[in-house]
Amino acid sequence: MLLSCQNAAWAYDGNVAASGLNFSVAAGDYLCVVGENGSGKSTLLRGLLGLKTPCAGKIVYAADWRGTDIGYLPQQTAAQKDFPASVQEVVLSGRIGRLGWRPFYAAADKKAALNNLKLLGLERLRGRCFRELSGGQQRRTLLARALCAAQKLLILDEPLSGLDPSAAQNVYALLQRLRQAGLTIIMVSHDLRGALRQASHVLHLQNKQKFFGTAANYKKWLEKKHV
Ligand SMILES: Nc1ncnc2c1ncn2[C@@H]1O[C@H](COP(=O)(O)OP(=O)(O)OP(=O)(O)O)[C@@H](O)[C@H]1O
């Protein structure tokens, strides 16, 4: 078990955004978090990252858990679009959590950045200024950055937003390969069909936990709901 949410809830100024969350994620799982706008998905991700403290319940992490093992792709925000740095620098910054006492990046950091730039088809753009890129190119750059950070767990908040169909397919194929290589993935997505093709587990939120289980059982649950 990598992490387990035990009756956890989060609120903003007393207004509950998500409550009664009980689920666990094992190493190698691919969990897709679904639900309508405002159902608490991003709040949960921030909770898992330790950026927002639960107002009830708790999250229990594996004994050997280190916060630096996580790569995180946040939801797109206006502020992110204005980074005055090159694509390569943004991707390399995914290694910051691993620098420890070192004041500079090592050859291994630069190699990892280059590798992830290639994986996301960004090699040609590496010298370009991040803020001059298209929305989809920026999204891929931030995904490459998250990959640079992800040792054990990749947390993605709508990774496909702004991507054209072929770029989205490439990201799905990449996630599949990463999972086969042993990475655990937690992803918020509005592309239910695409997510269900790949996910091992689904968590459906509506400010509460409506469903948690395997993707196969989620399909059955959806069918029952609609008869
Ligand atoms: N910083 C904040 N301050 C106050 N309320 C917030 C804040 N962030 C989110 N909320 C509220 O918490 C609830 C859940 O929001 P959240 O962003 O987690 O939903 P979501 O499922 O990720 O939505 P979307 O699909 O639109 O991204 C919403 O009612 C939202 O208005």
TrEMBL record:
The record's annotation in InterPro entries points to: AAA+_ATPase, ABC_transporter-like_ATP-bd, Metal_Ion_Import_ABC, P-loop_NTPase
> Can you provide one Gene Ontology molecular function annotated for this UniProt record?
ATP hydrolysis activity
Mark the transmembrane ranges: none
Positions of the ABC transporter domain? 3-224
At the top level, the lineage of the source is Bacteria
Q: Does the keyword Transport apply?
A: yes
Q: Which UniProt keywords apply?
A: ATP-binding, Nucleotide-binding, Transport
Look up keyword Nucleotide-binding and say if it applies.
yes
| Family, per entry | Belongs to the ABC transporter superfamily.
| PANTHER family noted in UniProt | METAL TRANSPORT SYSTEM ATP-BINDING PROTEIN TM_0124-RELATED
In Swiss-Prot or TrEMBL terms, this protein is called Zinc transport system ATP-binding protein
Protein's organism: Termititenax aidoneus
